[in-house]
């Protein structure tokens, strides 16, 4: 198992070289034009240490569409405010279904299986919006502070496109509202959710912003966002639910808490040690970055750094 942090750069260089030899990259998400236009051969990877030192390779400073990666941050931001009350409105079991599935909601009284499928993320964003009056703005402020990058922004064109193609998320929102599990007007919630999905950030930004989960709840400025046990909870839900109906395979291959987004990003946490973010826009059939998961698999295999 690696002990010297100085050895991260050669590890990243080696992984990027290996990925460069891999022809099969999957296909970019095609439900909105902005994502469909991404080149699946783009690849970036960053590792951030607990003190904010960052190593990177390839397109690691290129901003991309964060999409469902933001579900980790909204969960943490709401948990910090509501604590266990949140878990009365969203579960924490893997769903075994695709990220945008509706099927389990009817049997479970409008309570989504977990906060990382779309239904669960909508509940979390709804609650964060009630707590703060500005869910997407609260998220953006947090990401800027943790990454040290004030330039982070929402791509409003992507948000408009999400909205124009948002029938399924609208259906999820209205269906859960019929069970009383949504507090804001559904159109208000959807607007916040689509703007949240449309935040753009780089691997470097996101590896840094995820740092609080490796520091057991402590933010970049040394203040506490989550209790130690809440940070453990978020990491555990990432491990079991962060890559949807492929979470078992991700845990088997990578062995770390991780979260994917359809923009091709994947974040991962080595508690007590470092955080990672990989970006490559080509996805597999579950919506997870093909090269991203492979790169994380290689990282934990080469370094021995996993939670197991
Ligand atoms: N905007 C996407 C959606 O809501 C996010 C999904 C994802 O990244 N898995 O469908």
From TrEMBL:
<feature type="binding site">
    <location>
        <position position="193"/>
    </location>
    <ligand>
        <name>substrate</name>
    </ligand>
</feature>
<dbReference type="GO" id="GO:0004359">
    <property type="term" value="F:glutaminase activity"/>
</dbReference>
<feature type="binding site">
    <location>
        <position position="262"/>
    </location>
    <ligand>
        <name>substrate</name>
    </ligand>
</feature>
<comment type="subunit">
    <text>Homotetramer.</text>
</comment>
<keyword id="KW-0378">Hydrolase</keyword>
<feature type="binding site">
    <location>
        <position position="118"/>
    </location>
    <ligand>
        <name>substrate</name>
    </ligand>
</feature>
<feature type="binding site">
    <location>
        <position position="244"/>
    </location>
    <ligand>
        <name>substrate</name>
    </ligand>
</feature>
<keyword id="KW-0007">Acetylation</keyword>
<feature type="binding site">
    <location>
        <position position="162"/>
    </location>
    <ligand>
        <name>substrate</name>
    </ligand>
</feature>
<dbReference type="GO" id="GO:0006543">
    <property type="term" value="P:L-glutamine catabolic process"/>
</dbReference>
<dbReference type="Pfam" id="PF04960">
    <property type="entry name" value="Glutaminase"/>
</dbReference>
<protein>
    <recommendedName>
        <fullName>Glutaminase</fullName>
        <ecNumber>3.5.1.2</ecNumber>
    </recommendedName>
</protein>
<dbReference type="InterPro" id="IPR015868">
    <property type="entry name" value="Glutaminase"/>
</dbReference>
<dbReference type="InterPro" id="IPR012338">
    <property type="entry name" value="Beta-lactam/transpept-like"/>
</dbReference>
<dbReference type="GO" id="GO:0006537">
    <property type="term" value="P:glutamate biosynthetic process"/>
</dbReference>
<feature type="binding site">
    <location>
        <position position="169"/>
    </location>
    <ligand>
        <name>substrate</name>
    </ligand>
</feature>
<feature type="binding site">
    <location>
        <position position="68"/>
    </location>
    <ligand>
        <name>substrate</name>
    </ligand>
</feature>
<comment type="similarity">
    <text>Belongs to the glutaminase family.</text>
</comment>
